[in-house]
Amino acid sequence: MTDLFLTTFDWVPEMPRGYVRDIRVRWALEEAGLSYRVNSVPFRARGPEHFSHQPFGQVPWLTHGDTSIFESGAILLYLGERSDTLMPADPRSRSEVIEWLFAALNSVEMASLPWSIFMFSGDTEDTPGRKSLDKFLESRLQHLESVLAGRKWLVGTFSVADILMADVLRLVDRFDGLTGYPACRDYVARATARPAFVKAHADQMAHFAAAD
Amino acid sequence: MTDLFLTTFDWVPEMPRGYVRDIRVRWALEEAGLSYRVNSVPFRARGPEHFSHQPFGQVPWLTHGDTSIFESGAILLYLGERSDTLMPADPRSRSEVIEWLFAALNSVEMASLPWSIFMFSGDTEDTPGRKSLDKFLESRLQHLESVLAGRKWLVGTFSVADILMADVLRLVDRFDGLTGYPACRDYVARATARPAFVKAHADQMAHFAAAD
Fold first, then answer.
1. ipTM rounded to 2 decimals
2. Which listed residue, of A73, B122, B135, B139, carries a Cα 20 to 30 Å from B64's Cα?
């Protein structure tokens, strides 16, 4: 594959650095050994061109020839369909990778990201809604803990499902939310020790630091 | 396709009826005119067999021959790949349907479902976290409103992306969260007027009512 362009913000505040979702795409591209270039769009002034690629004004998006794709999940699926390193070719494993890819985003991150929003806000009030939200995340992590206690990666070998799940979990870990879940914590440590993650993370940090 | 089995709970409380996620799969199967049967698992006593199909103890899952798939997004993608009614075959439209399918789950539902959890809890406390969560949903709906103001469906003709987006939005609508978003509200009305949704909804209601 040639002509892969990843677009991210030109700059973001300190807080989200290392966690901006372009890291998922960088990580996948590094794992697959695909060459790519990184473009920037203004963080502060998001124009019509930006919204034409990403209708919510977020990042990242990937362009490949005249195809432009937004949503980290859709991008990783697209890359997975083009690289056996990212997604196994046999139909059964492929189907399992796809369900876990959705599980990372729609079963785990749907609980963990809102929880992180409360943590970011420094909100410690124990209201009924907050209790329900905490319980929602707890339930997801408990079940995931059972799964990860018996597996190195979600489906046989490392895949795009692991990139998404590990990236989702490391934001929980940032706020010490994995304390009671040793298998989840070990899984995050295992995933983020991979050279492709280390490079992706360093590249994102350098990208935003260059704009300061 | 033969031998499609959709599994859902045998019973759920009043509150979630009509909104249990098996409706997404029923709706897709009805749109595609595929025949299927519905199996039940206990809502109260979730056993190892249940967790072997759905590791978070949720529903639905779909079995097709010896393939078993969980996550409504993964199931709809699987069905979409097998039905031109659910997902257009040409690569560009297919790619757009897939990005919108992820957007429904990971950009919109990730904001709307936690918000609904607070609404379900009757939680009205205006804490900093709650304000951030409200703002998160508001931002997503504002951008989606611009998109839907100019389109009947997300990508040309009706697709699995619309099933997911409309189902996500109708839970927001249930709590009057679409009041300021007329294009979103019209879109939900348009989608849920489709005979396939009407049948799927009636079937889910009848399924749970039969267990009372």
1. 0.97
2. A73
